[in-house]
TrEMBL record:
The keyword Manganese does not apply. It comes from Pyrinomonas methylaliphatogenes. Keywords: Glycosidase, Hydrolase, Signal. This is Alpha-galactosidase. CDD domains: FN3, GH36.
Length: 837
């Protein structure tokens, strides 16, 4: 153990003392059922293919197709059908077992060094970030400080940093044990990264003759990213070697172990079986024995994270898996995390905790994009590690962290992989006597704004009853409306709305502490209708302004006449804000503690304005099956507008635009718009417009103007109008404004039902691909599952024209595949891809 400076020791002691006084209060506040227990489940999309559903608490929703019993791996549908082996057989998760939550009831939350420092990490920077977490984020639930690549060997370069027996003393003068001890003194938990199955130090290999895969001449039988040598899983000596390695790391004080390159290890064991000293056992079973050796060394109280890709072979031994590729500190990084969530979230908190990789919020990432990334993490409850230089974050970025830590006990309702990047994340929460939805709505396009329609019935909410709407990030109440709502989003952004069905009384709709708005902080809440008063208890964080938000029945108004907040030490100052239709109280405590509060309301005047009808409605086509309805607002004030289509009410919009989707191209439609006041009173007259979608469709339609039905790819995904590398499509020196850029071994599918008869494009390998690799790319066009066209292009070939008859086709698929062996992804372009009438 190394000696740390007196100054740093003093800081650590102060922080420990603070931690003892202000221990973080982050445990779940609802009584937890013993896991594993049956859970509600969906096994397929409903009418809205854009809907992605999660649950928190003992939720009951009409969206469920049935009930899944994880202990029996059995799903019972509402019609009585029983699907046995749902995960093992239907989803092909061979080693499925319910996650063991006895040691880790919640996913890990904290910080990782990699995505700011990469291999340029050092002890001083780890300490600085750990101290910042202890002061600013520990009470919110951050626990882990994970040191990534760069601590070992020479600290950089693959051949130099696959030696786990040597710590880089120049960068870590106190040693890894001294640093772990310091992190623990701060009340945090140290974590460490390594690729343990690999090794590049020849002396280590020579001193362990039965540990590594070797050829007869003594050379390596497996040289990969994992290391120049690979552990032979078939020998007891190899498994003892792994135990010794992890016993050392455990003795140093580490409690979180991120083991990298696991899919490479599994692949090598399958293909290099001939070099194993014992070839009688299944390679995957042997791989699991190496994991069992690691587990026996670190014990059940240490967190084991498999990385990267999706090492399903580790289920039942690993606590979690990093399911995505390496992120980047840009919008593409968010989209990598999104894709991993879509593909593998069905495993989260059921088989293990999924980790779509870290998230970042630092500039120059725009604030709206940082907020979207934080929302993705907060609403899904996956492993929650950020990777910024925390001391540099502006206050507005720190605020994002405060509102999503800790990760909570969220799990999927949707027990199936999503084939598209869904835009509506519906988290259904049941907590105390509150059942409400927290809905994240996303626009993934960096260039174009978008409109998203929330249909109450599609969300499992009452359609004909007012639903209160609160905007969490913007801290504003949007009213109570029937049927649904259209939301307008900026490019690359999100909104988070809390939806609470009206119960014709004063209701608590939101709290400010956490994106789940009550689960983390609200211990008790009670309403007395006789006195129009609320009382409750909340966990609050030191010096963090805590707000309770109340809403009133539509058309009625109340005002807070008195509010009290008290701790054991005495009363706290309370700020009251009364608004028409809603009210808030806010208080802050000088330490992290429990606060009792009381709020008394009295009737108040409701101001009403006689709204006037809008005028001059018009239609803008936005897709094959959708239009945006627009109009001129009246000069006088309105709360918003309600829209009906062919006499059927659709819902509310606060702005003068409403999106209409899933339209029949051959049907005739009449849309009506009426202005509405906050009490639900409509304008006497409405504005009407008649239209037919077929009349609006152009002669030629770029395929990139459509939203995909399905995306199938590995760690990257197709991009409209640019390659997956982020540049404009370019073939043979010619730039193309529209089209689809795809990495090889991926597929994209569109719904194209309508009047179009021809698909045309120009295909080839994008000019951005600089490799001289002679392998080819195969392009395939399919319609409704039937192959319609296929062509092969090599690097340097002239672009190949495509023209395909698609008459009667409803689902058009484009697929690209690399021909000839393994290798990196190749950017393949469908330039000027379009539908022609």
């Amino acid at each position: 153990m190394r000696i740390v400076s007196q100054k740093v020791k003093l800081l650590a002691c102060c922080l420990v003392a603070h931690a003892m006084i202000c221990a973080p209060l982050v445990a779940q506040t609802s009584p937890a059922r013993a896991w594993p227990h049956p859970i509600q489940a969906r096994i397929k999309d409903g009418t809205n293919k854009d809907l992605f559903v999660m649950t928190l608490g003992d939720v009951d929703t009409p969206l469920a197709d049935g009930v899944f019993d994880p202990a029996a791996d059995e799903l019972r549908l509402k019609d009585g059908t029983v699907i046995k082996g749902y995960y093992k057989d239907r989803l092909r998760v061979r080693y499925f077992a319910p996650i063991d939550k006895s040691h880790f009831p919640l996913p890990p939350a904290g910080w990782c060094s990699w995505y700011y420092y990469y291999q340029e990490i050092n002890e001083t920077e780890v300490r600085r970030n750990a101290e910042w977490i202890a002061r600013n984020l520990k009470d919110y639930g951050a626990q882990y400080v994970q040191i990534d690549d760069g601590w070992q060997g020479a600290g950089r370069g693959q051949s130099d940093n696959r030696d786990w027996t040597k710590v880089n003393a120049a960068r870590f003068p106190s040693g890894l044990d001294g640093l772990a001890a310091y992190i623990k003194e701060l009340g945090l938990k140290p974590g460490i990264w390594l690729a343990p199955h690999g090794q590049s130090n020849e002396q280590v290999v020579k001193s362990h003759p039965r540990v590594f895969l070797l050829k007869e001449d003594g050379s390596s039988a497996s040289s990969t990213w994992e290391g120049r040598y690979l552990v032979d899983p078939s020998t007891p000596e190899a498994r003892e070697y792994l135990k010794d390695l992890f016993r050392t790391l455990k003795r140093w004080g580490y409690e979180y172990f991120k083991i990298d390159g696991q899919p490479i290890v599994v692949r090598e064991y399958r293909t290099k079986r001939a070099f194993m000293k014992d070839q009688t056992e299944d390679p995957v079973a042997l791989y699991r024995k190496t994991l069992a050796s690691i587990r026996s060394a670190i014990g059940p109280d240490s967190y084991l994270l498999g990385c990267w890709g999706i090492p399903l072979e580790g289920i039942g031994i690993m606590n979690g898996s990093r399911t995505g590729t390496d992120i980047v500190a840009a919008w593409n990084g968010f989209k990598y995390a999104l894709r991993a969530t879509m593909q593998y979230y069905f495993l989260h908190n059921i088989a293990w905790y999924t980790d779509p990789d870290v998230f970042v919020v630092r500039p120059p990432l725009p604030l709206e994009q940082a907020r979207a990334w934080a929302t993705l993490q907060g609403l899904t409850g996956q492993a929650l590690l950020t990777s910024d230089r925390l001391m540099d974050l502006p206050e507005e970025r720190v605020e994002l962290l405060r509102r999503i830590y800790p990760a909570v006990d969220i799990r999927p309702l949707d027990l199936f992989p999503a084939e598209r990047d869904k835009r509506i994340f519906d988290l259904k929460i049941k907590h105390l006597d509150r059942q409400y939805d927290v809905v994240g709505i996303f626009n993934y396009d960096e260039d174009r704004p978008s409109l998203v329609y929330l249909n109450w019935q599609e969300l499992g909410l009452p359609a004909n009853r007012p639903v209160h709407i609160f905007d969490f990030w913007n801290r504003e109440y949007l009213g109570a409306w029937e049927h649904g709502m259209t939301i307008e989003l900026n490019p690359a952004s999100c909104r988070v709305l809390t939806l609470l069905p009206d119960e014709d009384r004063i209701q608590l709709i939101s709290t400010s502490r956490h994106i789940t708005q009550g689960w983390v902080d609200l211990l008790d809440q009670r309403y007395d209708p006789a006195t129009h008063s609320y009382s409750g208890r909340s966990r609050v964080i030191k010096d963090d302004p805590y707000e309770l938000r109340f809403v009133f029945p539509r058309g009625k108004n109340f005002a807070i006449k008195k509010a009290i907040a008290r701790t054991e030490a005495g009363e706290l100052p309370v700020k009251i804000d009364n608004h028409q239709g809603w009210a808030t109280i806010e208080f802050a405590a000088p330490r992290t503690t429990e606060v009792r509060w009381e709020v008394a309301f009295e009737p108040a005047e409701f101001y009403r304005y006689p709204v006037r009808e809008p005028s001059n409605p018009w239609i803008e086509r936005v897709s094959l099956d959708g239009v945006d309805l627009r109009w001129n607002p009246p000069y006088q004030g309105v709360a918003g507008y309600v829209v009906a289509l062919n006499g059927r009410p659709l819902g509310f919009t606060p702005t003068n635009v409403f999106t209409l989707r899933n339209l029949d191209p051959d049907a005739a439609y009449t849309a009506e718009i009426r202005a509405v006041w906050y009490d639900g009173t409509l304008s006497e007259k409405g504005a009407r417009v008649e239209f037919s979608l077929r009349q609006l469709l152009p002669q030629e339609l770029p395929l990139s103007a459509l939203t995909p039905l399905r995306l199938t790819s590995g760690w990257q995904q197709p991009e409209r109008d640019r390659t997956f590398l982020g540049t404009r499509l370019s073939l043979d020196g010619q730039s193309h404004a529209t089209g689809i850029g795809m990495p090889t071994d991926s597929e994209i599918e569109f719904g194209i039902a309508g009047p179009y008869t021809t698909f045309s494009a120009l295909v080839g390998i994008d000019d951005s691909y600089r490799s001289n690799d002679p392998r080819s790319v195969e392009f395939t066009v399919s319609g409704d599952g039937k192959e319609l066209w296929q062509g092969v292009v090599k690097k340097g070939d002239r672009p190949l024209p495509v023209k395909v008859n698609i008459s009667g086709v409803r689902r058009l698929s484009l697929r690209v595949r690399r021909v000839g062996g393994d290798g990196g992804r190749v950017p393949a372009d469908w330039a000027d891809a379009k539908l022609v009438r």
